[in-house]
Amino acid sequence: MTDTKRILFVYKFNHPDVEGLRAALAEVFPGRPIDLLNVKSLVRSHPGILLANIFFVIKEYPLRQLLGYWKIWRRFWATTYMHRQVRRLVNRYAAERNYLFTIQTQADFDAACPGLPNFIYTDTTNLANTYTPGYTEDKLYSAAWRELEAETYRNARLIFVRSSHIRRSLLEQYSVPPEKAVIVYAGGNTPLRELDLDQKDYNAQNILFVGVAWERKGGPDLAAAFQKVLPGYPQATLTIVGCAPKIDCPNVEIAGRVPVEQVAAYYQKASIFCLPTRLEPFGVVFVEAMAYGLPLVAPRSGAVPDFVEDGKNGFMVEPGDIAGLASALERLLADSGLCRRFGKAGYRLARERYTWKNVANMMQAAIRPIITGKERENA
After folding, report:
1. Model's pTM, two decimal places?
2. What pLDDT does residue 69 have?
3. Given CB 3.0 to 4.6 Å as the disulfide criterion, which of 158, 262, 357, 376 pairs with 258?
4. Is 240 exposed, middle or buried (0-12, 13-18, 19+ CB in 10 A)?
5. Which residues contact 60 (CB under 8 A, 6 or more apart)?
6. Distance (Å, rounded) from C-alpha 350 to C-alpha 187?
């Protein structure tokens, strides 16, 4: 191949998703080397930008939104100044190299460069949070920053999303044309394996929770529901992976933070997966749980209806309904055959839809006509 144009993959967070998608894109765009560019590392190589940005954090956000390390850290990267500086640095980086197109994860920066098609892959928008009951506008990023977020969507050729929930947000809240927002789903971060679910022990009565944010992921609701369930099912256990809450309840194992490669062992041991999350733009752990043949119990909110088919691969309950949550868990604890049927249905869905290979194939099908047209123009 005489054409040596490359692909620029721009991201902010070092997350397993990045490598999963990069590797899959490399397979569907053979002969196109993919360069990874971390915008946080890029900005940190310019200390003057970091110092100047402090002024804009204070200017654009009221003090109540800056109380606590996590709030400050998130808003430090969500100022209009930072947004514009990131785009300037990415543009400079791309101008010095030979790229065919750029692709970025999330839209909290803009990787659009002159003359290059830019594609966004995201599992959220800032305004999508307001679909969650109780989430008020004062928790959002600044109005000025959200204007730049909307501009980022306008600058992109296509926006690939993980769920119908976020596609709805783009159409309703950002006026993105329907043909521009394409659902491609996502893959899991644990290795896919061929499983014989007829051999899996669904009588283990082990309920699994995986999440780093106990409160936001609905952990207290699960703990309350588990306490309701325990008298009727004294052999049932609850395993918590990803965080370490203080729970005064028997039969609870708290694993806390574990390396990604060790999470698979907990999926293998479990017989039920439950995450009553309160704010969930996607939830890759649901995909991973299905890939290990686990029936799901989750709230009817956010992206959950995309992968929980109520009565087919799990049960959905209303958000905050602890009695409903306990009832769903009891139905599964009482019927290992039902667990197996749900587990098999979820396993099939995970392998058919939720793999990085499938994501990359759908992206390639949408991107190919655009870059082919661009190549003809430049011929």
Report:
1. 0.91
2. 58
3. 262
4. buried
5. 75, 79, 80, 142, 144, 145
6. 8
What the block records as the tokens of 263 is: 């999470």
Closest C-alpha to 206, from 319, 294, 314, 337: 294
| Tens-place pLDDT, residues 174-184 | 999 999 999 99
- 93 and 56 in one domain? yes
Under DSSP, is residue 329 helix (H, G, I), strand (E, B) or coil? Answer: helix
**3-class SS at 170?**
helix
The whole-number pLDDT of residue 1 equals 41
Task: Mark whether 348 and 373 lie in a shared domain.
Answer: no
What's the number of domains the chain is made of?
Answer: 2
Residue with tokens 């989430």: 135
DSSP at 103: E
What's the pLDDT score for residue 70? 62
Instruction: Supply the range of the domain harboring residue 319.
Output: 202-353
Q: CA–CA separation, 377 vs 370, rounded Å?
A: 11
Residue 208: which H helix or E strand, with range?
strand 206-210
Q: Which residues neighbour 287 within 8 Å (Cβ) at sequence distance 6 or greater?
A: 186, 187, 188, 307, 350, 354
C-alpha dist (Å) from residue 146 to 68, 117, 126, 178: 22, 22, 7, 20
Closest CA to 378 of 27, 98, 157, 29: 98
Rounded to an integer, what is the distance from CA 331 to the centroid of its chain? Answer: 29
Residues in contact with 81: Cβ distance below 8 Å, sequence separation at least 6, in sequence order = 52, 53, 55, 56
Tokens of 150: 């909307």
Q: Report pLDDT digits (tens) over 210-247.
A: 999 999 899 999 999 999 999 999 999 999 999 999 99
Q: What is the CATH number of the domain that holds 365?
A: 3.40.50.2000
Sheet holding 272-274, edge to edge: 252-256, 237-241, 206-210, 272-274, 296-299, 314-317
User: Which residues in the chain show pLDDT less than 70?
Assistant: 1-3, 68-70, 374-379
CA 161 to chain centre: 10
Query: Same structural domain for residues 169 and 220?
Result: no
Contact 190, 267 (CB under 8 A): yes
The answer to whether position 70 is within a domain reads yes
Does residue 338 share a domain with residue 368? no
User: Same structural domain for residues 217 and 172?
Assistant: no
